Every structure is written in C-alpha cells, then in structure tokens.
Amino acid sequence: MSKELKEYKDGEILNTLSFDFEKGEMMASKSEVVKEKETKEFFKVELEDGRIINCTMNHKLFVKREKRIIELQLKDIKEGDELVCI
Q1: Which of 23, 73, 82, 83 stands the most exposed, by the fewest C-beta atoms within 10 Å?
Q2: Which of 33, 26, 28 is closest to 9 using CA atoms?
Q3: What is the tens place of the pLDDT at every residue in 18-45?
C-alpha cells in the first residue's frame, strides 16, 4: 500500500526500482526521500492506462527514445516520448 506524498519523512529510505543502463535491466535499489524546502509547482502526468504521476518539472523519468532508454527531467520530455513504467 502506498502512502500520500506528504506522509513521507525527509531522509526516509525507500525500497525502489532503478534501471541499470549498462545491463539494460531493472534492479532493486534504495532511495532517500528529499523534501524541498520551498513549495514547488506539481504537475500531473496521466499515463495511457490511467495511472497518474505527480511530480515537479525537475523530477526524472525514464523515456524511450530512438530505441534507447534514457533518464530525463519532466521539463525535457517532448510530446510523443514514450515513458517507461512498470
């Protein structure tokens, strides 16, 4: 069960999935919650299957471009880019 964004504490360690670009595969990893000191504007990204990602323009997402998976900030994603989600 996932929590609301506001329920996570700064410095909390989460079990996440990461992409190993050298091996071209997903792997289990850990991530630390970093809360911004100032309020940022959040954007809603709706996926084709109806799932929603709430993030800032600096949030990094995986994108498939030209048969490669790359990591881009939301502000650098273009219409037609394919988000890689699990």
Answers
A1: 23
A2: 33
A3: 888 888 888 899 988 887 776 678 899 8
Overall residue count recorded for the chain in this entry: 86
Please give the Cα distance from 55 to 19 (Å, whole number).
Answer: 19
CB 64 within 8 A of CB 81: yes
In the prediction, which pLDDT does 1 show? 55
Average pLDDT, the chain: 85
Least confident of 1-5, 19-23, 79-83: 1-5
How many Å apart are CA 53 and CA 42, to the nearest integer? Answer: 10
What are the DSSP calls for 2-27, one per residue?
PPPGGGSPTT-EEEEEEEETTTTEEE
How far apart CA 71 and CA 17 sit, in angstroms, is 14
